[in-house]
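Throughout our pipeline, every protein is held as a single compact record rather than as scattered files. The record that follows is passed on verbatim for readers who wish to inspect the format:
___
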Amino acid sequence: MSADLLTTLLQFQPDAPELKQRRDYDHAARAFVSQLSNIAATHWAKGADTAQDVLSVLNPTANSIAYAFALRHRITAIAGKNNVPDALKPGGELWNKLVAFLESFDPVQMRYAGQEWKKLVEFTEQIARASGSPSLAVAPIRSAMIQLDPTTGSFTSTHLSFIRLCMETRSYAAAEPILDNYIHSLPSKIPIQVREGLEYSVPCSDVASSAEYIHLVSGHSDKVTLADVQEYYVLGAMAYTGLRQFKKAQQFLEHVLVAPTSGNTANGLMLEAYKKWTLLNCLVNETDKVVPRTTNSQAIKQVKLAAKAYEALAEAHAQLGDLTKLRAQIKTGADVWAEDGNAGLVKEVLDSQMRTYVSRLSRTFSAIPVSHMANNVGGSAEEAAQYLETLIAEGYLNARLEQSDKSNVGVVLRFYLDPTQGPLAKTEKQQQQALFEQTLRTNMLAEQVKDADYRLLLTKEFIDNLKKHNKRPGQSGEAMDTAWDDGIDAEEDIMTDLQ
């Protein structure tokens, strides 16, 4: 590495006194990125694997912009077309540097080097796949997303590739930290410009929303379509289902159902979401729940016509006292469930009705012989006892099994009538903690809504609409109806059917 190159790479020091002002930092960072972008690729390879190696001299945290450029050029230079060099394989020197960087880079500096950030994230998945271990890319990519945006609330193309990777490798739990965060922004084509002195001024400021520095111009994301967003929610719902978090999965699918449609026509993702949503309603005991009012009525009609088997199953599940009808309905549609990849969820529906049946008994009985239950649901008393033990162990039933003193009764299921007793009992402290955590989630969502309202006031569309309303006789300024962010490409005017 030449002395001139080293001098160039070290010239941007984020902690320098002259960069304390946000505008000065912003100007210097932009100029630095532009300067590094014009350095020829051959210069980055000089001194590789020596004491003067740029990757050894630079600090990945303090010199994140320069390090990202150097690392990207190094990987590009040695990556083979048909094989992965040992240094890039998981456990190799470059792989370790890549993973360490994605976990420790300066997030403020990476707001200015979006293209390098995205390229390094893509390299991580490509290398892991080429090495035959795609699951090894999950943790580094997740770290990179959280490091850049702790809320991960600004949707990017990386969100979709990440959840695809998690589903492929069945890394459901690994995806949960990302899925649990609300998506509050979609990548816009043009970043919002705000006047000097206001809260949203430059990317390096303490912005309230990551949408101020993550957009299509920043380089952190490719252009996304409405279908990309819907696919993210469908796959996210499947991940939640794999974690048995059925309520969260149901809510994710509702995001798909309420998405604007083009020409009053439902797409395949909406149909897939409705089928799974119908089954999940059974699992969260909301069989009678209707689709959200904001869904497109014409599109939902089309979806329902194609999902009659699922609605029939939900209807059978609603009849809690008739397990025979549900079993028959499941058997009749066996080929449909298998073809749609929903056989596992259908089995959960049957188990759900069994659990509901047992739970309802607790409202009438304090104790009941297991043999009596077996006669009603089918199977032997031993099988019923094993099933009940599973329900108790998994937290579905606040009860215990005990041997009756009467020889002709056998095993008895005894319910705990006091909620402070039994395996599901919660102390007062645990209940307070649950309320506290819910309050935190509500407050965070309220702040994101407030931030979205503020950014809306700054858009050209809002101002134009406000002027239009003010010109009408007897009209005062009213808030405009908002559609999806202009960064979303639905290929057609997706709001036509809503006019």
Observations:
- The beta strands are 224-225, 367-369, 399-403, 411-415, 488-489.
- The chain is about 55% helix and 5% strand.
- The chain has three domains: 1-224, 260-361, 365-429.
